[in-house]
Design goal:
Length: 71
Amino acid sequence: TSGVSFHCHPRQEMKLRLFVDKSNIEAFGNDGRFAMTNLVFPSEPYNRISFYAKGGSCNVTSFTVYKLGLK
């Protein structure tokens, strides 16, 4: 499993945008207030996503996937 992690205060709502390609995951939170990049080398193509909270809980209220087109 590959991914990015960040700290969020309890009961704080966060807008999170993720960009995923073959070997890179980029995360932008709260309209750019934080940004993270993670270089990954998966053995299989990405076909799912999961969210979890360490020592707490999270609630995903909206989730949209957009396919990025290459030109």
